[in-house]
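Quick start: read one record
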Amino acid sequence: MKKSRCAASVAALVAGLAFAGAANSQTIEFWTQHYADKLNWNAAIAELIEDFEAESGIQVNHEVVPWSAAFQTWLTVARGGAHPDCADMYWLHSFSAIGGDQYGPMPINEYRDEFPTLEQDFYSGALRDVIWQEDFYGIPWRGDIRAMIYRTDVAAEVGIAGPPETWDEIIEYAKKMTKRDENGNIERWGFAFGSASNVVSWLLPYYWQAGGEMMTEDGKTATIDNDAMRAALSFMRDLIWEHEVVNEDSMEQGFDALPLFVNGKIGIIGSAHQAWGVRLDREYPEIDGTWAMARSAMGPDNRSSFSGAGYIGVLRGSENAKECVEWMKFLSRDENMLRLSKASGAVGTKPAVMGSDFWSDRPWKVIVGQALEDAHTSQHPAPAWSSIATPKPGAVLFDLMYDTIILQKDMDAAIAKAQERMQAELTR
């Protein structure tokens, strides 16, 4: 009887402790955008949450922010709107500048030691998206890297053994790949600037490769009236009008490089989205073996590649920063970063992820991993950056590109005007 009562007492004590632990367990609110297949993405996050909750006792409530509402959502959060404890976010520099020290992304410098091998574990380019003004904000988890893509069959046809390595070789190879009929009409363009519809993103890597930066690190001063900008714009302009290897209608609305590339009507694209590898494999298996990706060509100064990124961080006003950091530590493990990468289709931010079998089973995947070594963040610290860089007539950089590259207006005057307009936006 005594033994039975003792066992019952122990059982009651264990049950009580379990109940107390459950009652005292923390719950964090976690938001993400959705990626790739929505059902697969939600399932992947649910599995990660289940594993984390079992390990830590911390509960995670996951909500999805549609991409159509993402920018407005994070802009609202940065202005004091409703927010989660932690989230999958982007444009840290801009949203931090908007929120100041009141709203939006929250520095977590006090938890920096929780990630003792941060610099060794992550690509340096990816870490630029989570550190702003020397403050640490979170963990980069996805990349959006661009690489060169070219038709290997066309290259072989004209006697070229591989991709161009420099700006001069871009000109040389594009001339060889450009094909005209007997009347001089273009049958195949040797080069295109980029794969994305955002034409401003075409300019950025060439400007960076020439050694330029759009603004000072504090986002207060425009820095585009310089020799680097002249070099980038001259290079792009001359490819169209002097060397005649790029379609002069490239910047017009509706231009789409993908079908032209698939049909062998473009030889090289200088800055192609990583997702093209997935699309070409899935949607155009008939051209397998006729194309390849390559690292960006070396410009006058470096090989910079356009890179977008997402990071997981904490929001100001959260009372569960410590629990969010535990969640971030869990997600930043190599095996969990790989799970996120597979579910999203986005490149990982860690060499350990990009060295996995998943990112090594196709030649183009190996290349995008190498391109991450050249990543240059596309975000900027000015709240006005989105309006400056929007790819539409009337925006500062679009007008600068159109005036100098397409209309061939006086470059010095156009750059000086753009510098003045951009500075006015930053000041405002």
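The chain has 19 helices and twelve strands.
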